[in-house]
Design the sequence.
């Protein structure tokens, strides 16, 4: 049996193996228990450190969840012993010393009854009195009052007389009403009606449309006035969306005894703060009508408008009558004007980008150009001829439209044409066409190289494909992968065992520790380690 190795499965995290082969042992460091497989490959618990610890913990002291061990005198301590007891207690029929039972509480009491264990005890309990007199409380002219403690008992009771008269009073007059026999009637006056209804015993007061409250208030419905409406206050505020009036003319400034008030209307808007716009007759400026906007001052003080606090507004309209005069600026081009205020006599008129303006005359009268000369014309920025001179004709060869342009003049000395697609060749006096050679095609690829033949002019006359064939000595860089029959690796550990990795590079596994054997771990990977039974 020397040097015999027994394989034993083990686990650091699993308390019990899921299954074991017949007679296969396994130990869990997690639960401290030893198992062995039975005929059904079911793990059977046979021992382990867990049970050794339980035996070592045994004590005669009263300790929960610990094995009981007798002390040197053969005794042990316990809180409760569940068992059949034998001795005097097993045959006793009465208590050694009898006792009395009785009730003496705050609410219930009873007489004392003796008990010695030979018969049962029945206590006759009685409620204690609360001090409340027995009787009937409440009636037609009285109501009962009670006091109840926290246990629901009535601790006191009494009768209280009911008031039979109700005093009532109005804006004028008073009365006393007998509650048992009288009826209170609410009488409406002019424009007021009353309605009594059973819900919550309410009385409702309504006023009709003939009632106007003289102290002010809010009218939620429509208000129709068939006569004249006279308002004597200083301000009328209309918080409405639409005002409809049958009057075709609205009189303003009725209190303008002299030409002292501005007449018109204004409104407000918000643009970087509250601003105002107004259309009015300015009493302080000869009665001119003004359309202003961008005002920073509300037109209210003294019924006047401070025109200095406004900007001139823009009016879009068709003006069909009247006189335009006193303009502070020229009429713009966009408005059909010249945007200018004066012009030079006899001058030409041009648009300078912003307005019409005068421009002085330029140039001299005369006749220019002939068969051997061309006129050189100078114009100004406005397209006018400012100067004209004669210049002798001298043209470039590009202007030659007939004849044969010689080599010395940059030509080909050949105006007879060329072969379509042919390559041009200079034969000493002119350009001529050469016939094409070779065959169109695509040559060379990953496994072939092109073999090229050229003619005396350097043109490719033929091309063929030749398969690549090289010696292993010509491979001077890179690593041959597994997919190409290589290992995918450039070096290996001495004395190591080669291990494939699918299509990845071949790797090695090695060990320098004596006693290691090659095993397969839980992930199916070969590894060197001391022999064991595996994990569960």
Sequence:
């Amino acid at each position: 049996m020397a040097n015999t190795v027994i394989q034993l499965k083990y686990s650091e995290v699993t308390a019990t193996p899921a299954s074991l082969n017949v007679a296969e042992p396994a130990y869990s460091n997690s639960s401290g228990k030893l198992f062995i497989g039975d005929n059904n490959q079911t793990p059977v618990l046979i021992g382990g450190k867990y049970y050794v610890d339980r035996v070592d913990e045994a004590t005669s002291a009263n300790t929960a969840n610990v094995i009981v061990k007798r002390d040197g005198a053969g005794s042990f301590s316990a809180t409760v012993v569940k068992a059949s007891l034998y001795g005097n207690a097993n045959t006793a029929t009465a208590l050694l010393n009898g006792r009395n039972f009785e009730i003496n509480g705050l609410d219930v009491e009873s007489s004392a009854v003796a008990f010695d264990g030979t018969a049962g005890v029945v206590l006759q309990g009685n409620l204690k009195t609360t001090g409340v007199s027995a009787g009937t409380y409440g009636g037609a002219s009285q109501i009962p009052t009670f006091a109840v403690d926290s246990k629901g008992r009535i601790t006191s009771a009494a009768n209280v007389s009911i008031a039979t008269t109700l005093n009532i009073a109005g804006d004028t007059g008073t009365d006393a009403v007998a509650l048992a026999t009288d009826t209170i009637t609410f009488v409406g006056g002019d424009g007021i009606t009353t309605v009594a209804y059973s819900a919550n015993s309410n009385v409702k007061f309504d006023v009709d449309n003939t009632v106007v409250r003289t102290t002010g208030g809010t009218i939620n419905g429509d208000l129709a006035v068939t006569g004249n409406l006279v308002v004597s206050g200083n301000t009328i505020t209309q918080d409405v969306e639409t005002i409809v009036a049958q009057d075709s003319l609205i009189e303003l400034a009725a209190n303008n005894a002299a030409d002292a008030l501005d007449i018109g209307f204004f409104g407000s808007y918000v643009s970087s703060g509250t601003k105002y716009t107004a259309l009015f007759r300015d009493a302080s400026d000869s009665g001119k009508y003004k359309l202003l906007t961008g005002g920073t001052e509300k037109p209210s003080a003294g019924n006047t408008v401070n025109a200095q606090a406004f900007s001139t507004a823009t009016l879009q309209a068709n003006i069909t009558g009247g006189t335009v005069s006193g303009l502070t600026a020229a009429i713009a081009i966009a408005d059909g004007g010249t945007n200018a205020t004066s012009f030079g006599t006899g001058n030409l008129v041009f648009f300078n980008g912003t307005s019409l303006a005068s421009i002085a005359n330029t140039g001299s009268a005369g006749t220019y150009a002939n068969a051997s000369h061309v006129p050189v014309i100078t114009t100004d920025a406005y397209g006018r001829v400012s100067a004209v001179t004669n210049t002798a004709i001298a043209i470039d060869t590009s202007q030659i439209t007939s004849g044969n342009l010689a080599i010395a003049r940059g030509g080909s000395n050949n105006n007879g044409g060329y072969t379509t697609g042919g390559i041009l060749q200079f034969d000493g006096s002119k350009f001529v066409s050469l016939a094409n050679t070779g065959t169109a095609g695509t040559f060379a690829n990953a496994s072939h190289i092109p073999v090229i033949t050229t003619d005396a002019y350097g043109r490719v006359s033929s091309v063929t494909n030749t398969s690549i064939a090289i010696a292993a000595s010509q491979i001077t860089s890179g690593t041959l992968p597994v997919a190409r029959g290589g290992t995918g690796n450039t070096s290996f550990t001495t004395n190591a065992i080669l291990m494939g990795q699918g299509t990845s590079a071949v790797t090695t596994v090695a060990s320098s520790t004596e006693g290691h054997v090659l095993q397969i771990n839980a992930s199916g990977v070969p590894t060197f380690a001391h022999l064991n039974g595996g994990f569960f």
In short: The chain has a mean pLDDT of 80. The longest strand covers residues 274-282. Residues 481-529 form one domain. The two ends are 27 Å apart (CA to CA).
